[in-house]
Amino acid sequence: MDCLFCKIASDEIPATIVAKNDLAVAFDDINPQAPTHVLIIPTTHHDNVAELSAADPLALQALFSLAAEIAAERGLNGYRTVFNTGAEAGQSVFHAHLHLLGGRALQWPPG
Asked: Are strands 24-28 and 36-42 parallel, antiparallel or unpaired?
């Protein structure tokens, strides 16, 4: 499989890793949309969050656990977590990933 995020999870491609657990890896987004913009991915490949939640709910929980850990470590007073599912929603890498955004006031609706 030629998946960018699988290669990051397996250390084949370097990334700025900010946290890990047994089921997930978190790294800084290379095109940040906020002062804190971290991508949190499962270590196993699933095209999107719908597939991940059906196949491995513990991995889904691990993504949110890392998000909370990183937000606390960075002293975020508030933060947003986002999954884009499908190209029409803005998903460009088809490996489930959670965006953690914070460090500034975030607008609603997001766009």
From this structure: antiparallel
Hey, how many other C-beta atoms are within 10 angstroms of the C-beta on 107? 7
- Separation of alpha carbons 8 and 29, rounded Å: 12
Residue 40 in tokens: 């949190």
Q: Which residue has the tokens 């999954």?
A: 83
Using one digit for the tens of pLDDT, what is the confidence trace for 29-61?
999 999 999 999 999 999 999 999 999 999 999
**pTM, entire model:** 0.95
Residue 111 pLDDT more than 70? no
Six token digits for residue 90: 């803005």
Distance CA 40, CA 17 (A): 10
Q: Has 97 been annotated as catalytic?
A: yes
pLDDT band at 110; cut points 50, 70, 90: confident
Query: What does the alpha-carbon distance between residue 66 and residue 100 come to, in Å, rounded to a whole number?
Result: 10
Q: Are 32 and 40 in contact (CB under 8 A)?
A: no
Catalytic residue among 46, 95, 97, 99: 97
